[in-house]
Amino acid sequence: MLRLHGHELSGNSAKVRLLLDLLGVPYEWVRVDLMKGEHKQPPFLALNPFGQVPVLEEGASVLSDAQAILYYLAARQGDGQWLPVDPYEQAKVVRWLSTAAGEVRQGPENARLFHRFGVKSLSIEHAQEKSSFILGQLDRHLSDRQWLELERPTIADIAVFPYIALAGEGGIDLTPYPNVLAWIRRIQALPGYAPIAGLDAELSL
Q1: pLDDT tens digits, 134-155
Q2: Which of 3, 58, 67, 87 has the highest local Cβ count within 10 Å?
Q3: Distance of CA 67 to the CA centre of its chain
Q4: How far apart are CA 97 and CA 146, in angstroms?
Q5: pLDDT at residue 35, as a whole number
Q6: Residue 69: domain span
Q7: What is the separation of C-alpha 102 from the centre of its chain, rounded to a whole number of angstroms?
Q8: E-strand spans in 48-198?
């Protein structure tokens, strides 16, 4: 049995839960109380010295970092659906995992941290600028396709989805990006999609 350590308001935890639900893979959810600093205590730091959720356990194997976990779960499935086996196609998918950890984090994720969680050490102006950039890029990219790559859902979509869908919590208006909104709806309509606490309730699409 897989054990997933995370928090219900963490977008990075949400993306791993989403993939597990879409794959139909059973797992045990282990809640890490971020508000009480549980992720900075020795028991959790023994799993991930970086003190970040999510963390995935499978037997004696432990993985941290949401993007790495998505890659592992898709490769573990072995059918090429969520992570293609062709090297070129795989690279195109992995590129979006880098985007999730880069532009999406610097933009919508940081804007959400500023407004939703009061992390005032972040520059909201910079986060808004980055959000405008990545949302514009995504909207143009999705203008002639349904999914980010390969004309089917892959972990590229799962990696980018939560923080884009939650952009409103960071004061970012998605209305100017109709192709992004349509893509969000397509993900929500996937077989096996389960509502995610703190996400679907915030979307009024």
Answers
A1: 999 999 999 999 999 999 999 9
A2: 67
A3: 8
A4: 18
A5: 87
A6: 2-77
A7: 12
A8: 55-58, 61-64
Q: Which helix (H) or strand (E) holds 28?
A: strand 27-31
Question: Do 72 and 97 fall within a single domain?
Answer: no
pTM exceeding the 0.90 threshold for the entire prediction: yes
pLDDT bin (cut points 50, 70, 90) of residue 194 is confident
What secondary structure does DSSP assign to 110-135, as a single string? HHHHHHHS--TTS-HHHHHHHHHHHH
Exposed, middle or buried: residue 91 (CB in 10 Å: 0-12, 13-18, 19+)? exposed
Task: Report the C-alpha gap between 169 and 205 in whole angstroms.
Answer: 14
At 1, the pLDDT band (50, 70, 90 cuts) reads: confident
Shared-domain flag, residues 69 and 91: no
Tokens of 167: 């952009």
Distances in Å between the Cα of 113 and the Cα atoms of 34, 119, 123, 131 are 13, 6, 10, 13
Question: What CATH number is associated with residue 66?
Answer: 3.40.30.10
Give the Cα separation of 126 and 123 in Å (integer): 5
